[in-house]
Model the fold of this input.
Amino acid sequence: MTGTATSATVEIYTSVPLAGLAGADLLPFPLFLKTSPNTWVLYRDRNSHVGEEHLRRMTVEGVRELHIHTVDHSAYLKRIEISLRELLTDRRVPIERRVEGLHGVAVQMASEILQDKPSAEGVERAQRLLVNTSTLVLREPKAFKAMRVMLGASASLGQHSVSVAFLSMGLARHTLSADPSHLLTAGLAGLFHDVGRIGYESLEHDPEHCQRGSDLLRKLGIPESVCDAAMGHHERWDGSGLPRALQGNANPELARIVSLADAYETIYSGQEPRVTVYEAMRILAQAYRGCFEPALIANFLKLFH
Done:
């Protein structure tokens, strides 16, 4: 099957890296090979098998990517979530493409597990993704820079939670250490900081969501520091926050990290018209003067150098 595109049909194809496509399960979408600027040839049909040998042959032949129909992008993200580590560690794929795949999987996953109160299975799914994320951040110096480009694309709970998770991991690396366990914990804290809002989304002012979220996470057996971050992510260094008006070090360090990441991401994604990273920093400095630990602010700025 060969498709010759016109200006109206070019948009239906999206390029995807080879890494992560192989698997034991049958392919849930067709794959296409681009043979000329406006021509795509069917490479593998839906419900066919794609193994490592197929992809090795293509690599030898100089093929670096295949194409999918744009409507199949969600199914593609499901496919590569299973083998995400393979995609993220394949240095033949530009770091920007790897991070694009990671971000797509993360937002889809977060949107699904935050549709309702998270289950233990959802938490395990999030942990697997964040382990892969921490590995990428620690091994690839340019990874976080590529991740920053993806922030603030949407104000949805899933997108916001992923952005706060990525920012918290980056900030934890500078503030705590480059220990993978610290990055994983920071990612979990960022991802689940607003879990108490689920079911109460219509409330404009809802300080109780901090306690609800902390209680829910504790029931799931999540580390205490992550529960504390859900409880304290609206506390402020100067004591002006909610729900307990904790001041300074009375609010745990991980909670202070998530608090800053959450405030910045809310500003960056919520401004209309959209603002730049540095304009968001200026708004943060003016609107939240004294609200965040100076040393934490200094480390946060390092993420954007």
The mean pLDDT is 92. The chain has 13 helices and five strands. The first helix runs from residue 52 to 60.
